[in-house]
CobQ/CobB/MinD/ParA nucleotide binding domain-containing protein
Amino acid sequence: MVKPVVIVVGADKGGVGKTTVSRTLLDYFSNNTVQTRAFDTESPRGTLKRFHPDITEIVDMTTTADQMKIFDTLNSGLSVTVIDARAGLLSSALGSLRDIGFLDAARSGQITFAVFHILGPSIASLDEIAETADFMSGAKYFLVKNFINDTQFFQWDQSTYNSYFHRIKYATELTIPKLDAMAYEQVEVASVPFVDFVANKGRRDEPANYSFVLRGYVRHWLANVWSEYDRINLTELTGTKSVTRGGEH
């Protein structure tokens, strides 16, 4: 039986582009033929589910019943579970994972666990690192600087950067580059995965008429994002290897 892989994407600060990163992860695993499912914790409305409705379920991760939907089904045959944690939920979600014994299972090697901690530009966002790091024993910890919202990490002078990042020896840094604003908006309007926008496909794989120029911007951006995932050997979490270069369709 394939060892379950659980990836939590989150932050305690809002507006840092967590769902965008989750969407790129789902596209990346799909492109590498890795079976994946997702949970959208933006209950009851959901955001991730709008883009990946076939594999995403909306849950309230603060309730025991919905925690059971996620963690009692890890051996369902799907090797990767992506959890898009809503704003402000990361610390409490990790606390719940500790309380149910999930973190112990990860430390003992029964489950592969990774956290994509999406950072904002402020010192307050960096302050989250110390709290989150307490839960990361036995987990893969990725610190993600996300420029998708035209974020400028202006408050991170070198000494401040070093004081936060160097205290966590096992963390890996990632950078998500900025996507052209009009291209990003058009993918939002289309409500399709990035890979479908690039392939000029609408819902239900019907042919679409997206702009050649905007598709090009998304293709180039997605390739850069996936190169970051290749750099950290993300598919190795699932026991597979990357089979294609990102964004090439």
User: Anything to note?
Assistant: Residues 212-231 form the longest helix (20 residues). The chain has one domain: 5-178+222-237. The longest strand covers residues 112-119. The CA atoms of residues 109 and 138 lie 8 Å apart.
